[in-house]
Design a protein that fits this description.
- The chain is α+β, with helices and mostly antiparallel strands.
- The chain has a single domain, classed as 4-Layer Sandwich (Phosphatase 2c, domain 1).
- Strands 2, 3, 4, 5, 8, 9 and 10 form a 7-stranded antiparallel beta sheet that branches. The protein has a 6-stranded mixed beta sheet with strand order 7-6-11-13-1-12.
- A hairpin with a 4-residue loop joins strand 6 and strand 7.
Length: 255
């Protein structure tokens, strides 16, 4: 049984076009993932996209940070013929640095089949490098659990990334078989939204409060399909308050 993508949305930084958005969503044969290309790196959106595609192809071989590092040897966001010719000192510096991206993906780690969801165990294998976040929420909008930053865990200002240039893993590779109770959904988000939701839960003591997640992020309970337009309206409103002005992306999943 595979997880269903119920809804998703992505919004670029204020005043920028969709083409400049370096966040990526990937629904592949063996995973669902999000990646957040680091702005001050080379072609971050292309690298985020290539990173997710590579993980999809090789995820059965990724068991820890070392095997993930080995998987990325020789992987590039584009071929030499496709790369732009950089003439400015800044462009050359970014090219030398390579692309960088945070990433979080979901798959079933308890079987050899390419299945995302282990129905018998009701567990979902999550893996990440960086500060993307997953929230498990009930259908009534109650926070159930969060990973890698849950209740009592401070959301970091930065938490590493995956680089196109070796060493590829810049930070900690994390992985968990996360329990998903009945009638729950999984919300995966890039860091701007993750930090916002985690902050609201902490400051307003919303952990386990019925309907709290639906109140602070209504799209988690009311949206279906690609809702980027509605998401953009919500993001513009919240950026006037606590939400950081950054590329912002969410995917809502359910068994």
């Amino acid at each position: 049984m595979r997880l269903r993508v119920i809804a998703q949305g992505t919004v670029p930084k204020s005043g920028e076009s969709g083409e400049s958005n370096a966040d990526r969503v990937y629904v592949g044969n063996s995973l669902v993932g999000i990646a957040d290309g680091v702005s001050q790196s080379y072609q971050p959106g292309l690298w985020a996209e290539k990173l997710l595609a590579t993980i999809d192809e090789q995820c059965q071989n990724i068991r820890d940070g070392e095997t993930f590092e080995n998987t990325l040897i020789g992987v590039s966001s584009s071929s030499p013929s496709e790369k732009a010719v950089e003439t400015s000192w800044y462009g050359k510096r970014l090219e030398a640095r390579g692309g960088q991206s945070t990433v979080l993906w979901c798959r079933d780690g308890l079987t050899k089949r390419f299945v995302l969801w282990n129905r018998t165990q009701r567990t979902l294998r999550l893996s990440a490098v960086g500060d993307c976040q997953a929230f498990v929420i009930s259908r009534s909008g109650e926070f159930v659990s969060g990973w890698p930053f849950g209740k009592g865990v401070e959301y970091p200002a930065a938490n590493g990334a995956v680089s196109e240039i070796a060493p590829h893993i810049r930070g900690e590779f994390q992985s968990i078989d996360l329990s998903i109770p009945n009638s729950c959904q999984v919300l995966i988000v890039t860091d701007a939204l993750g930090r916002y939701l985690h902050s609201r839960l902490t400051l307003e003591n919303g952990w386990g409060v019925n309907g709290f997640m639906s109140t602070i992020f209504p799209l988690a309970s009311s949206s279906r399909g690609d809702v980027s337009d509605a998401f953009a309206i919500w993001v513009a409103k919240e950026r006037k308050d606590q939400l950081a002005d950054d590329d912002t992306t969410f995917v809502l999943l359910a068994p």
